[in-house]
Design goal:
By secondary structure, the chain is of the alpha/beta class. It has 22 helices and 10 strands. Strands 6-7-8-3-9-10 form a 6-stranded mixed β-sheet, sandwiched between helices. Strands 2-1-4-5 form a 4-stranded antiparallel β-sheet, with helices on one face.
Length: 604
Amino acid sequence: MPTKTHLFIYFRRNWFRYIIGIALVFASTWFAAQVPRLLGEAIDLLRDGAEMSFVRGAAGMLALAAFAAFAFRFLWRYLVLGFCRGAETYLRRVFFGHLETLSSEFYIKYNTGDIITRGISDINGIRRMFGGAGVGILNALMTFALAAYNMFDASGPVMAGIAIAPIPFLLYFIMKLRPYLKARQSDIRVATSKMASKVQENLTGIRVVKAFAREAGESERFEKLSRGKWQSEVRRVRLASLVGPIIQIVYGAVFTVFILYGSRRMADGLMSLGDFTAFNDYILMMIGPIGMIGGAVGEWQTGLASISRLDEMLLYKPGVADREGLADEWAARANPFAGGAEAADWIALRNLTFAYPNTPQDAPPVLRDVSVAIARGETLAVTGPTGCGKSTLLSLLARLWAVPRGEVSVAGLDVNDIPISALRDEIGYVPQDNFLFSDSILENIRFFADGVTDGDVYDAARAVSVHDNIMEFARGYDTTVGERGVTLSGGQMQRVAIARALVRRPQILLLDDCLSAVDAETERAILSGLRGYLDGATAIIVTHRVAAAALADRVLVLNEHGAVAELGAYDELIAKRGALFALAEMQANAESKSSGEGAEQNER
């Protein structure tokens, strides 16, 4: 849904607070407009030598009006601005929830800094649009109306006309600035997004920056982005700053006319000193709102630009989504994961061919006619040369990308007929990028899931041989790993990530070459330990180490074109001296060469 629809939903739920606040805006403005008139009356009473009781009464009315204006202003700001803060919180929740539903292609198209800027700065701009800007314009228009009425009542149509005449021209001028201010604000938002992206990238890759001694170069690149944002801000300020001086010039001329004409009327006895003072105050009352409208229009244009930028993401449709009505169908169906399909084809790929979205039409697919049936409880190793589609295969099983209908099934059902949440609840997936949150090791493994006990966490950690490493830390499982797990070694990060996938005992475990940072012996020990822990779950393990594939029930070998080169038991494929044998021999030669070079260096 677009941003405006979400705002309408929030308003419908909380309209009473906003309407009361708007009513108080009118009350506050009305009382504020009485102050100049009451001040003029008090001055006339003093000039005419009225009794002090009347003067004190006028002063009391003046003080009461000023206090009422202040009190109502406080109340409307509390109600309206509080309402807008609630809308801001609601929009952020909607925006974040929508981001959680989007597929991988979205995060390829938009960088993290741009997303963060829209979720913080742009939503803040929308809040300001409906808070200070929207109410400011309403307050200004009412101030104009009340000031004009009181000026007309105090001095007649001529002087009131002189004071009001410039307003339409000033407002026209301000309105003509609107599209230019909107364009300038869009430039600022884009520049802010670029800065945020640069900060995010450098903080994430700080170890790479330091390893290559690129601190000075990266600082220079950030300086260029920062200056670009500064230039965008200056262009907007240069344009917006025209409003104030022009208002001052116009109303300087109005004051000149008013003093000359008003003093003559006072000399002729047609205007009292109190009316003269009140009229002067009403002109001052109008100058403020005109400037306010200038600022409010700028805020309004910022809000409109922010709505457009937010809509770009809120209206983005996920490439992977459940079809309409699937949730109801699933609720009425017996859980297929409880019993499942025949053991021989618990997971089935049938002529699976896949190419990533937005790739050239003449580009070859990543996977080509892959067919394999995986039994329930079986462990399948997937290997092959770099770039052959091994990781893509696992991401399709988890429906991280749109899967062609009829080509992938789980538990006897096409994956497109299984709700995404239900499918992924049964999957423990460990990608190559073993991301850890800046939290304790315990919470990283538990992943904030209800029902996962500390004992479950310890068992999962033992299964991947990381429990003893964790207990060596001073705080054990309460150790905070730091952003992206920088506290841990590469091997420890990988094993903690695997423990997170294991802790809920999934029926399907997908490991995407996630043990590359441990030695071959440790990898074999971990994979052997998984069998007892999984207790009948199906595992698909992507690995570059052919020796580790020997622990699987079968091995799927993909060729460089993403097609099946071989499929079978490890010993059978090695005996055939085909693709798997060639990979094993190549790795053995590489290890032998590396060992020989190491021994030669030691002799030196």
